[in-house]
Amino acid sequence: MPDSHLPPVDELLSIAVSALGGSERQGQVTMVRAVQKAIDDEEHLAVQAGTGTGKSLAYLVPSIRHAMGSDSPVVISTATIALQRQLVDRDLPRLAETLAKELPHEPTFAILKGRRNYLCRYKATAGWPEEDEQDQLFDPREVSATGRMVQRIQEWAEETETGDRDELVPGVSEQAWRQFSVSAQECLGASRCPSGAECFAELARARAGEVDVVVTNHALLAIDAMGDLPVLPEHEVVVVDEAHELVDRVTSVVTAELSEASVMLAVRRVGRLIDQPVADQLMEAGEDLKALLAAAPPGRIDELPQVLGLTLQLIRDTAWRCITAMGPRNADKDDPDKAGQRKAAFTALDEVHDTAVRMLDAYGHASEADRAEVVWLDGATDRRPPSLRVAPLTVSGMLRDKLFGERTVVLTSATLALGGTFDALAAQWGLADGKWQGIDVGSPFDHPRAGILYVAKHLPQPGRDGLPQQYLDEITELIEAAGGRTLGLFSSMRAAKAATEALRDRLDVPLLCQGDDSTMLLVKQFAEDEPTCLFGTLSLWQGVDVPGPSLRLVIIDRVPFPRPDDPLTSARQRHVAARGGNGFMAVAANHAALLLAQGAGRLLRAQDDKGVIAVLDPRLATARYSGFLLNSLPPFWRTTDPAVPRAALKRLTSDPS
Q1: What is the dihedral of CA 115, 119, 123, 124, to 10 degrees?
Q2: Dihedral of CA 45/229/361/570: which sign?
Q3: Where are the alpha helices (H) located in 302-382, listed in sequence order?
Q4: pLDDT tens, 199-241?
Q5: Which CATH number fits the domain that encloses residue 556?
Q6: Is residue 289 part of a domain?
Q7: For the chain, how many structural domains are there in total?
Q8: For residue 313, how many other CB atoms are within 10 A of its CB?
């Protein structure tokens, strides 16, 4: 229980809002009370808080209060670097200064990332095993570009005080950074590493152990909850912001990959540490895998082909022979160079062995309902060869046991109530049968007065052969009515580029497309030049925040269902159906609802914003699932009449007020 001598949370919020020049918002007050009650009652809470609610302040104030009263830090987890920076660079410093006089001491905070994000001093200066030479691209320009990045990292390493990769601006490639960083599995440990006393990752962790609020990301939160060794300081309360991303980020953490490259990396790392014939056996198994993957079609692998099963068994067994031949894991512990080489070799071998075991274990179940994981083949691209992947069909059990079982968790986002309820995401989080509450604190925006949701019911259903001519005509007329000022959100990069190419000659306003430049620069140009339009894909949906007259129209080309051939989502759909559920609604419709809500959320970013959301896909008005999708969106005024949005946009263009 929080210390009763501390000021009430309402009073702290009021002081903070006044000092920061804001005004009281009912949704924010409702949320701050709900978060405080959840902490007091040790009950999980899901809060949907629309844009403009001030949700960061609404969870930071009770979090700081709890940390002060319990001497236990609160962990804030986010999905994006942008929100992390906003919290650490803007929100927390201002709030700490504001509340300092009301609390026992000025609130303290720190950011903590995964070990790979910090420069490893020892690796930067010692004879660490070389990274995967075969990853080097043969294009001399690529090699020289990587060399310049390596030189820049070396110069930066001499002056950095944090070792945080994000300090490097412009950024560097993963290939260059790998030469200066280690994973948690590869790390020698602070006590055995010659640079342990000045290790950037350990210093960051030490700072995090001394503060009131620790800001981290969903991936590290998952690693901490599910790993054997704690990464985050001991804590009682977690706030998960951007909680709609939690399941995907956790799934990424627990997805494993097996390829010829990962096998050959293990072979090179084990190198001279064991007898050559033993290492050669693993190399031959890797070559067998390479040949097999080159000939196999990409996609989900429902039944284990005999030849793949034999190859996986061979990789598993030869990797184990190499591990056994290495001898005790703590050998050479007094020689850091040799210890580093051994740790790197064990890490690569363990990954290969354990992934092969997981893939073999994914098969042999009596029914589809009993299956726990899915295996698929990722096809080759221009930059990488094919690889096998394995992922869990659900992470709800992991989250229920590892994250929600040990602490109080507050989950918040602008988009959590899919179809009007929290049930869908609660089930994905493993909260369906647990002690939790969901509340929607609303939004300060008057959606029916500020925005129109227009569904182009008269258009044909979208096909697989690109954008129909009727869609291009519709987009042209809408943009002309808006005088530009349009964000076009497309289901694929191909569709975004096709629309850009087809419309640049038809429109007399500037038209930018994702990929023309960095996303940050494109969004800046879009925001600063009112007539400019910006087309992009789903990846833009959460990253664009453009208040004001530069954005009056958001166009969404189709309901963003996952691709039917996506291995993981299609397997999850089938798994739900095998257990008696509605796989389409539980997986595909939830996915579409979440992305639609995120896309629609781009329009209103400030109190004076007005405009139109135009969804060109008629299924949003006609399909049996349309009610579920519409109930997932903010309550805009709805129409299917093409004349209504055009007239509204023309009025906004001629009279922005």
Answers
A1: 180
A2: positive
A3: 306-326, 336-361
A4: 999 999 999 999 999 999 999 999 998 887 789 999 999 999 9
A5: 3.40.50.300
A6: yes
A7: 4
A8: 14
